[in-house]
Amino acid sequence: MASIHPFRALRPAPDRAAAVSSVPYDVVSTNEARELASGNSLSFLHVTRAEIDLPPGTDPYSPQVYERAKVNFASLRERAPLLLDETPSLYFYRLRMGDHEQTGIAGCFSIDEYEADVIKRHERTRRDKEDDRTRHMIELRAQTGVVFLTYRADRAIDLLARQVTAGEPLYDFAAADGVTHTVWRAGLDQTRNLVRAFEAIQSLYIADGHHRAASAARAREELANRAGSTADDAGAETFIAVAFPDDQVQILPYNRVIKDLGGRTARQFLGALRAQFRVTDGAPTPERKGEVSMYLDGRWYAIDLTSVPPEDTSRGSSLDVSRLQQGVLEALLNIGDVRTDKRIDFVGGARGSDALMRAVDSGDAAVAFSMYPVTVDDLMAIADDGGIMPPKSTWFEPKLRDGLLVHLI
Q1: Which of 29, 68, 325, 333 has the fewest CB atoms found within 10 Å of its own CB?
Q2: Do 76 and 209 have their domain in common?
Q3: Does the residue 221 lie in any domain?
Q4: Is the peptide bond before 253 cis (omega within 30 degrees of 0)?
Q5: One domain for residues 195 and 260
Q6: Is 0.85 surpassed by the pTM of this model?
Q7: Does residue 3 lie within any of the structural domains?
Q8: Residues 334 and 402 occupy one common structural domain
């Protein structure tokens, strides 16, 4: 069984929420973060990407970056200000992007349950990224990045969500990207009822934020091993997350752009594809699972991937990203490890097919592949089997903002 824990959120004063909140630290480069935070001294990017306040070229993993983050965090708490709720609570966080809307429950979740696989993973993590957020958490004594969880929808929780969100929100604003963020705080009785209702949830699934969760577990271990560790460190036993019911979660495709054709011309590459697959004129987005759209030499094509046999019996091997990797990227373009190969890049589905066309038309890439999105059911089934999804399989949109709810540890 999963559990949820109320916590005392550190959060901005209501009239400063829009200014303080920022995109997640890991979806922007240093230069992009610097540009987004320019002219806004309250932006939470000064905390999560503190290298933007140091000379250009500063190593983002250098000691002075973490020290600057600590100073910026303390300053922001005073200037925004950031307020600490007096009593532990649960919160609801609604994201609205165009016609899509999803409402999740924000609270703290057990690291013991994460390590026991009650909170399930579907991605491998990188040690260097874990090192970064672990040190960030320990230096600030705060979890500033929110994990995105999902669970199989539950009617009792849905009912409580409707009750809480019928009240006056703490925050309600539209960010610069057009996504509306609305947050409510549950009352004392509502919080107790939510804790009880959550006891019916068998498993939770990390949708986005594997490195945040892994880093929280490592931070707990490091704090526990420190001399003088006390009960004041109890906050480190949990990590902050927002859990959304699976029937509201939106997964967009994670598309691929390839810098060169491995020595082939566009005509030669198209011929090699047609020798292996059914290739027809196509649209910028695939119509069904088992099909990928390809942009090459100014035209869109549809490639039928169903002829690629899965490498094994796992569900992950039958995903389109796996079939594309095996049958095209590796077999025809000699791209083996997509995590490390510099010839491949990835474009989140929110940027649309126009971003793929621009990359190819500008000469930055030779070919682009537009994927059919993975489903939440795929993610849950693979995680339930203890499997790992192929790298860059899912792009979750809209995304939670950093800085609205912070968990002190």
Answers
A1: 29
A2: yes
A3: yes
A4: no
A5: no
A6: yes
A7: no
A8: no
- Which two tokens mark 133? 């957020």
Looking up residue 336, the CATH number of its domain turns out to be 3.30.1760
How many domains does the chain contain in total? 2
Can you tell me which residue has the tokens 């990928």?
292
Q: Which of 64, 36, 47 is nearest to 12 (CA)?
A: 47
Identity of residue 353: S
Residue 125 structural domain: 10-250+397-408
CA-closest candidate to residue 369, choices 295, 300, 319: 295
Same-domain check for residues 267 and 332:
yes
Mind listing the pLDDT tens digit of every residue in the chain (409 residues)? 899 999 999 999 999 999 999 999 999 999 999 999 999 999 999 999 999 999 999 999 999 999 999 999 999 999 999 999 999 999 999 999 999 999 999 999 999 999 999 999 999 999 999 999 999 999 999 999 999 999 999 999 999 999 999 999 999 999 999 999 999 999 999 999 999 999 999 999 999 999 999 999 999 999 998 866 654 567 899 999 999 999 999 999 999 999 999 999 999 999 999 999 999 999 999 999 999 999 999 999 999 999 999 888 889 999 999 999 999 999 999 999 998 899 999 999 888 899 999 999 999 999 999 999 999 999 999 999 999 998 899 999 999 999 999 999 9
